[in-house]
């Protein structure tokens, strides 16, 4: 029996090892990652009655790991933690095998079972994210306890049902689920039942605003009025089946009044729905956007269709999933039901900043879509990343008959010239779907300018809250465009993505650009930090010595493994198995 089979059968763990190699973060900066650029050897604990001992089989390195190193104890997930005393073991893109089970968990878990983990876990209302608060996967062995097994959403371990899938394939479900989740966003088709509603007017009578349908099935807990004339207030309150009606008397819809209203009427949480009746000035639009809570919706019933560029917190769009909708009719309910399909659709798609690992995943999903577009344009400013896009997707585009174009905006003398070329490649038309993968306000503004009628802008890049982009709010009103965003994935997104992998509907291995053993994680993290690898790096914790190597180099230096790569040089299960046969230690 070869080493690989012994590894799969747990025959290399006849006894629980005394020590486990682990990479730890002791403070801010790469100089505080690892023990002098090496893994530490830490004790392996026996699982307690309510715990299980797991083996890390493969770990994808993520840019989020580098953020922990960059910010140290200032990172929002671990604020104030003494990292010298309580270091972080990162690694949340991980494939796990159960090694030993505590007696109280024997009904639910057995040695040899394989799992992935939803890292964004909560226990008793607190975030205890795996790889941040809890020790993550960049260790050979680890304990999984009640925080994960009895979390607020149940167990955050997701079973791998088809064990013919490789370790890398399953470890990379986590980043892929983040991409897949961005197309599974769902917004309400009406006001939030039992929520906080703010209605902003200009104090003038008229308009014929129709609220009856809006309030027929759902009723807010509280309706707050700012600058709304008295007769209309009475009508709205008459339609409400329950809840309170409150009028803001300290002035019109100024930013200061909105801020006070959030504090006074929502306990600082923000409004679930804000409805603006008639044209509002730019300051009111910006302040209203800031006054929304998570998943809040701003419904702008504008009187005119003239362009109006407003300051929008795109970080709240991305992290809080706030939404901007609107219309020019008197039907207040209608905009809630318009353009709710956020999945990839239409004849033309443009992806800005698409050359990185996550961008390549988005591009692959475009090509995997059975109702795919006729034209796909991907941009990036790094030539090595653009070359990877060409190598990976031009053959597929030819096979599917899709017009695929890779553009470097820096090849043009001006942004205007680049834009003209992009529109020319799309037959002079704007786009049906736009994905922005650069966390830069100017790029997000540029991305928004490509939106056609009823188009979607997917703000995938991790822009922090408070990041302002100047976007034409009237496009959401007159053209029903939608700006959407999401951060991470939920348990159901992970499971959904894993099942697609198990049904061979998604090849997560296609994202792999390089592999490494446990000895070279420092260099792997540094490569992720600097963006020097145009794809995902996968670490195999039980390979003690394998220097970080790209798949291209692997083909040259280890031809037996390289011969098992896919036709386009991609990672495969067969290549992984040969790698483990050669480099595992007994």
Cα-based radius of gyration, to the nearest Å = 26 Å
How helix-rich are the residues, as a percent range?
25-40%
Which stretches of 5+ consecutive residues score pLDDT under 50?
A: none
Q: In percent terms, what proportion of residues is strand?
A: 15-25%
* CA-based shape: globular
What is the CATH first-level class name of the largest domain?
Alpha Beta
Major sheet: size, sense and barrel closure? 8 strands, mixed
Do you know the CATH topology of the largest domain?
Quinone Oxidoreductase, Chain A, domain 1
- Multimer state: single chain
Average pLDDT for all residues: 94
- In total, how many beta strands? 26
CATH architecture of the largest domain: Alpha-Beta Complex
Task: Please tell me the total number of domains.
Answer: 3
Distance between the termini: 12 Å
CATH superfamily of the largest domain: Medium-chain alcohol dehydrogenases, catalytic domain
Q: Pairing-aware structural class of the strands and helices?
A: alpha/beta
């Amino acid at each position: 029996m070869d080493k690989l089979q012994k590894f799969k059968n747990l025959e290399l763990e006849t006894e629980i090892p005394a020590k486990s190699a682990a990479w730890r973060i002791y403070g801010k900066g790469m100089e505080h990652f690892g023990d002098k650029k090496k893994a530490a050897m830490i004790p392996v604990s026996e699982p307690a009655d309510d715990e299980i001992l797991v083996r890390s089989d493969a770990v994808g390195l993520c840019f989020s790991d580098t953020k922990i190193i960059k910010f140290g104890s200032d990172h929002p997930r671990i604020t104030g933690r003494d990292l010298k005393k309580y270091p972080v073991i990162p690694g949340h893109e991980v494939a796990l095998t159960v090694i030993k089970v505590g007696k109280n968990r024997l009904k639910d878990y057995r040695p040899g079972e394989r799992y992935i983990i939803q890292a964004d876990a909560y226990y008793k209302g607190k975030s205890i994210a795996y790889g941040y608060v809890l020790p993550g996967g960049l260790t050979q062995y680890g304990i999984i306890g009640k925080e994960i097994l009895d979390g607020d959403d149940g167990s955050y371990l997701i079973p791998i049902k088809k064990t013919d899938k490789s370790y890398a394939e399953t470890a990379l479900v986590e980043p892929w689920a983040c991409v897949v989740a961005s197309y599974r966003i769902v917004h309400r088709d009406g006001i939030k039942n039992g929520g906080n509603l703010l209605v902003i007017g200009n104090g003038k009578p008229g308009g014929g605003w129709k609220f009856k349908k809006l309030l027929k099935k759902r009723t807010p807990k509280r309706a707050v009025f700012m600058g709304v004339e008295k007769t209309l207030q009475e009508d709205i309150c008459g339609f409400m089946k329950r809840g309170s009606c409150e009028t803001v008397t300290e002035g019109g819809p100024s930013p200061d009044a909105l801020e006070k209203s959030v504090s006074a009427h929502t306990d600082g949480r923000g409004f679930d729905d804000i409805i603006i009746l008639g044209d509002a000035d730019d300051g009111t639009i910006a302040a209203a956007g800031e006054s929304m809570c998570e998943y809040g919706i701003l419904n702008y019933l504008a009187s005119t269709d003239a362009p109006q560029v407003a300051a929008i917190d795109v970080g709240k769009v991305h992290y809080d999933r706030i939404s901007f909708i609107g219309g020019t009719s008197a039907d207040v309910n209608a905009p809630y039901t318009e353009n709710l399909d956020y999945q990839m659709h239409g004849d033309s798609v443009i992806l800005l900043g698409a050359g990185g690992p996550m961008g390549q995943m988005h591009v692959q999903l475009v090509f995997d879509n059975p109702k795919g577009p006729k034209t796909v344009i991907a941009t990036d400013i790094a030539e090595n990343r653009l070359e990877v896009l060409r190598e990976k997707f031009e053959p597929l585009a030819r096979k599917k008959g899709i017009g695929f174009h890779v553009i470097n905006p820096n090849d043009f003398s001006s942004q205007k010239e680049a834009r003209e070329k992009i529109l020319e490649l799309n037959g002079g038309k704007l786009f049906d779907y736009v994905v922005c993968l650069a966390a830069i306000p100017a790029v997000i503004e540029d991305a928004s300018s490509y939106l056609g009628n009823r188009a979607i802008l997917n703000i995938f890049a991790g822009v922090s809250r408070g990041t302002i982009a100047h976007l034409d709010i009237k496009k959401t009103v007159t053209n029903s465009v939608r700006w959407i965003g999401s951060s991470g994935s939920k348990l159901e997104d992970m499971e959904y993505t894993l099942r697609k992998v198990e049904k061979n509907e998604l090849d997560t291995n296609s994202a792999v650009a390089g592999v490494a053993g446990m000895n070279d994680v420092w260099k792997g993290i540094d490569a992720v930090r600097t963006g020097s690898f145009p794809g995902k790096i996968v670490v195999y914790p039980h390979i003690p010595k394998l220097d970080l190597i790209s798949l291209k180099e692997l083909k040259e230096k280890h031809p037996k493994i390289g011969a098992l790569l896919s036709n386009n040089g991609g990672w495969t299960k067969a290549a992984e198995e040969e790698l483990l046969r050669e480099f595992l230690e007994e």
